[in-house]
Amino acid sequence: MSTVRMFVLVVVISLPAVNLARGAHITSYIAGFVLLIFIYLVMVSCLTHAWQKPVLILKPTCMKKTFTLSLLLAAASASFAQTAKNFTATDCGGKSHTLFDELDKGKVVVMAWVMPCGMCEAPSKTAFNAVQNYATKNPGKVLFYMIDDEGNISCSDLELFAGKTVGDKTKMTFFDNANNTIKMTDFGGAGMPKILVTAGKDRKIFFDKRNAAADDATGIVKAIDEAIVSTNVQDVNSELKFTMSPNPVSGNLAITYAKAIKKVVVTSVTGQVVYEQSFANGQMNPIINLYELKSAIYSVRIIDMNNKEGMQKIFKQ
């Protein structure tokens, strides 16, 4: 087999991995390309031992090395593609926004890039309506940004488009995106329109679709739900350092703490007590059964024998 054919084989093996990073940070392109070249050089070095033979055969040990490196490329590409990039931009009302500051506050940010154009209407409206579904049960938690794709549309035209075709413009934050500060290519690639959901201190991207595929109500809602669960779990600060497992939980929840626990109280997001258990003489590392609870986010509060309290959040599957 010629080196050219072998290189084509490597490309075919690696393309799915590279595709994961399509449009992601430029570092993902560089890392993927460098690793691809490295794979090729490994294969060439394997082939040189058989260079004088009429038919070149890749040794099994070399094939294993190449396959392992291809898997490494996939993992590296995926990790680059799943995180957001920070920006600081001024909205159409003159207020400055830094993305990572919002994420650090536990916000879920839904971004819609538009031209504006006819094909931008339905996906943008779908995303906006999804955000509004959380306005009552999670007020102020989910933000909606409407962004001009290349920074060449005025704020007035952007707001006019949104008011006529998307929804209540008073519930949106608009960016004319002067100087193309909020680049689509920093968030998984360009498309028209582009809808993205990001949240968490880990800057995770939960949803990223472009063009007609962006009109995905089910996918957007699922992404926001997952983002809320993720940020709610991250947001809790506990006076007492204790651990719970598993989290998410479906049945028994094991609580691990260095001292005896006097009481465990589980409450819903509305503050309703849904489970409570006391231990008169204290209990080391109690296990509680949450099987009967509905799928939702809950707060678990523990009180030790010195009346010190700690709280963490769990997700019941």
List its salient traits.
4-stranded antiparallel beta sheet; 317 residues; alpha+beta; Immunoglobulin-like; 3 domains
Count of domain modules: 3
| Terminal-residue CA separation | 52 Å
Percent range for β-strand residues = 25-35%
Name the average pLDDT.
Answer: 80
- CATH superfamily (homologous) name of the largest domain: Glutaredoxin
Secondary structure tally, helices: 7
Assign a percent range to the helix content. Answer: 25-40%
Strand order of the largest sheet: 5-4-3-6-7
* Count of beta strands: 14
Tell me what the structure shows.
The chain has 317 residues and is α+β, with helices and mostly antiparallel strands. The protein folds into three domains: 3-81, no CATH class; 88-235, Glutaredoxin (3-Layer(aba) Sandwich), CATH 3.40.30; 243-316, Immunoglobulin-like (Sandwich). It has seven helices and 14 strands. The strands form four sheets. The protein has a five-stranded mixed sheet. Strand 13 and strand 14 (309-316) form a beta hairpin. Helix 1 packs parallel to helix 3 (60-81). The longest helix has 23 residues, at 26-48. It is elongated, with a radius of gyration of 25 Å. The model is unreliable at 10-29, 49-58 and 73-81 (pLDDT under 50).
Annotate the secondary structure layout.
Layout: H1 3-20, H2 26-48, H3 60-81, E1 88-90, E2 96-98, H4 99-104, E3 108-114, H5 118-132, E4 142-148, H6 155-165, E5 173-175, E6 194-199, E7 204-210, H7 217-235, E8 243-245, E9 252-256, E10 261-267, E11 273-283, E12 287-289, E13 296-304, E14 309-316
